[in-house]
Amino acid sequence: MTFTVAIIGRPNVGKSTLFNRLVGKKLALVDDQPGVTRDRRAGDAKLGDLNFTVIDTAGLEESDAASLTGRMRAQTEAAIDDSDAIFFVIDARTGVTPEDRHFGALVRRAGKPVILIANKAEGRVGYAGAYEGFDLGLGDPIALSAEHGDGFAELFTSLLEAL
Ligand code: GDP
Ligand code: MG
């Protein structure tokens, strides 16, 4: 079985960090500056015994289509179209923002399997924030730490169930 998963979410939630961990190389640019991933990046991901293509995207932002952020949004929508499943990432420390809700709705409308990931969930503070993800209507959030490598067994199980 060969399939593609797109990593979607607003800037700075840790999409590129997750991409790098799944691919096992530093292919994606990780930066504190939101929206640093301007171009789509694809890599060969490994999660448990699953091998698939993963697409890293720039953060979703609401904006004028002519602007840079508009192009990043178009690129994200193309990545959603090209994927078989979506990792929708929120920041467990920040909780759910209006931007997360807006694009959560967009991802839901795509009608593809979505796995909701509450990233930066290392420690108790992160787990508390992850609860806010429940009312996005995207299923139960998986508490993850892309940076520290926590929660990947659960992510594997969820992906298996979603496919
Ligand atoms: P992107 O804009 O969504 O691609 O986010 P990045 O992967 O560039 O990460 C944005 C910031 O969040 C960086 O400073 C990362 O080091 C940090 N970050 C990413 N994953 C985690 C995590 O699991 N825990 C914590 N505490 N920080 C993280
Ligand atoms: Mg990025």
From TrEMBL:
Residue numbers binding GTP 1: 9-16, 56-60, 119-122
Family according to the record: Belongs to the TRAFAC class TrmE-Era-EngA-EngB-Septin-like GTPase superfamily. EngA (Der) GTPase family.
Leader peptide range in chain numbering: none
Domain EngA-type G positions: 3-163
Assembly behavior: Associates with the 50S ribosomal subunit.
Species assigned in the record: Rhodoblastus sphagnicola
Protein name as it appears in the record: GTPase Der
Role: GTPase that plays an essential role in the late steps of ribosome biogenesis.
